[in-house]
Design goal:
single chain; mainly alpha; Formate dehydrogenase/DMSO reductase fold; two-stranded antiparallel sheet; 15 helices; 2 strands; about 80% helix
């Protein structure tokens, strides 16, 4: 069935895969620093420093993946790009405002230290929350194909809360890996709450999507498809329980396995994205527009693909190198 819906050349589907890949990497990487910003503790200056120090070398580089994703959408799927930003014009403006607030606040609080640092910390926190909630709302509207009405809006609101919880979840996992002492214990305790809220969100979205589309229901619950698809939700459930148990026992002796929560939550993100891709393929906008219907001409896609093949690995290698250089526990940020 899926094969019959693919284009003759397969180029639109290749770009759909690349789009999904860049969105996933953005969600995992910028997700942790957005989550950390959103959870910034206003009641403890030292812990705020440690939260910020843990993402200092990474946060602006992580946003590169958002630029890459939007670029692929614009160039490879211009019709879908037009529809997405027509339907989400105001949320996009709010998202950009939140990202701008984060950028300005980070520089002023870290590089121009004054008596207004607490103000800039608040701006960073609220900008992070604004960007996170907006992304969740946009995802909810996208998943239902931009349907109008009260129910789709309520679903988008639920999606906003769940994405915020998921970003907080992976942010806490990052902090457990990068910090020690009271900060690490606080992150673990918060991570447990965020994890169960994110799990509830994953469950809710998993239940809503099959009811919203008979095609999705057939893919997940028909035989033999159910045998192939069932391991994904089982693995997600096992990982949520395993990460929760690790959080429960923080700190561990000699900080053993502090990397596990971050790897575990990243894997949960990956499995969730695979589940969405399996549900909606080959649509670039669910139920509205397939990749083949929205794609640029094949000649254009071939030309664009050359550029993507060059640029994407460079950005990926830079991301890996950056995290390798700053691997280990975070230290105080210094600008001089």
């Amino acid at each position: 069935m899926i094969e019959s819906m693919m284009s003759d050349t397969g180029l639109p589907e290749i770009f759909l895969f690349l789009l999904g890949l860049t969105v996933f990497i953005y969600a995992a990487l910028d997700g942790y620093d957005l989550g950390i910003g959103m959870l910034l503790p206003l009641d403890n200056l030292q812990q705020r420093h440690e939260y910020i120090d843990s993402i200092g070398p990474f946060w602006d580089a992580n946003e590169t993946w958002l630029v890459m994703a939007v670029g692929i959408l614009l160039i490879a799927f211009p019709q879908a790009h037009s529809m997405v930003f027509q339907e989400l014009y105001i949320p996009t403006a709010i998202l950009l405002l939140g990202l701008i607030m984060r950028g300005v606040a980070f520089d002023f609080r870290a590089k121009a230290v004054t008596g207004h640092r607490r103000l800039w910390d608040r701006v960073f926190k609220y900008g992070s929350a604004m960007a996170t909630l907006t992304q969740g709302y946009m995802l909810g509207r996208y998943v239902l194909g931009f349907e109008d009405g009260l129910i789709p809006q309520l679903f988008a609101g639920l999606s906003a809360i769940c994405v915020a919880a998921a970003y907080g979840y992976i942010g806490c996992a990052w902090l457990v890996m990068k910090t020690e002492g009271d900060t690490q214990k606080r992150a673990a305790a918060t991570g447990r709450r965020m994890g169960w809220l994110a799990a509830a969100g994953i469950l809710a979205i998993s239940l809503v999507n099959p009811f919203a589309s008979s095609v999705i229901a057939d893919r997940w619950f028909s035989f033999p498809e159910i045998i192939l698809a069932l391991p994904m939700p089982i693995m997600v459930g096992v990982l949520i329980l395993a990460v929760d148990q690790y959080f429960k026992n923080v700190p561990t002796i000699n900080d053993v396995g502090s990397w596990f929560p971050f790897v575990g939550v990243s894997t949960i993100f990956l499995l969730s994205f695979i589940g969405l891709a399996y549900s909606f393929f080959p649509y670039v906008i669910p139920g509205v527009m397939t990749a083949a219907e929205s794609a640029s001409a094949d000649a254009s896609l071939r030309f664009i693909l050359v550029g993507v093949i060059i640029v994407l690995p460079i950005i990926l290698l830079y991301t890996v190198y950056l995290h390798k250089v700053f691997w280990g526990k975070s230290t105080e940020l210094k600008y001089y």
